Amino acid sequence: MTISVYQASVPRFVTILGNLSNILDKAQAHVDAKKLDASTLTTYRLFPDMLPFTKQVQIACDTAKGVVARLAGVEIPVYEDNEKTLAELKARIARTITFIQSVPPEQINGTEDKEIVIKRGDKETHYKGMQFLLGHALPNVYFHVTTAYNILRHNGIEIGKRDYLGNP
């Protein structure tokens, strides 16, 4: 049995981003119960040179929608990166899930060898589709979701491994 590019991407992103959204619910419940300022979570960094919580969620979403769009050959939706609240971050996750689920499997399957070029400034990195998905995008999404999880856990949000993994 082989796994398709679609199976290795869209359902995986939907699951991990959905789990992240559920974790944000628990964070909001904690903030509400303790009467805390949610910005202490959204702006929190694990270390001064690391990105804050909000950016972790934004990058996870951007990476998921970016790889799906590139593989499918469609335009990448642009989000403003202006979220300040947990509710706004949940809305971004929901928009991302809606977008990636809108791309049909037949637009993604068969893109294992598709040429993907990522430009950062004046530097280009060249990938093949499967290499980009498995070697860059999936690890990047999981890295940023894990970092977001760790920021919340560090700040006392009662979440655990089952929250991260969900019930796929």
Describe the protein in words.
The chain is mainly alpha-helical. The protein has one domain: Four Helix Bundle (Hemerythrin (Met), subunit A) (Up-down Bundle). 63% of the residues lie in helices and 7% in strands. The protein has 7 helices and 2 strands; from the N terminus they run αααααββαα. The protein has helices at residues 5-34, 39-42, 53-72, 86-102, 105-108, 129-154, 161-165; strands at 115-120, 123-128. The protein has a two-stranded antiparallel sheet. A hairpin with a 2-residue loop joins strand 1 (115-120) and strand 2. The model has no long low-confidence stretch (mean pLDDT 96).
In short:
The protein is mainly alpha-helical and 168 residues long.
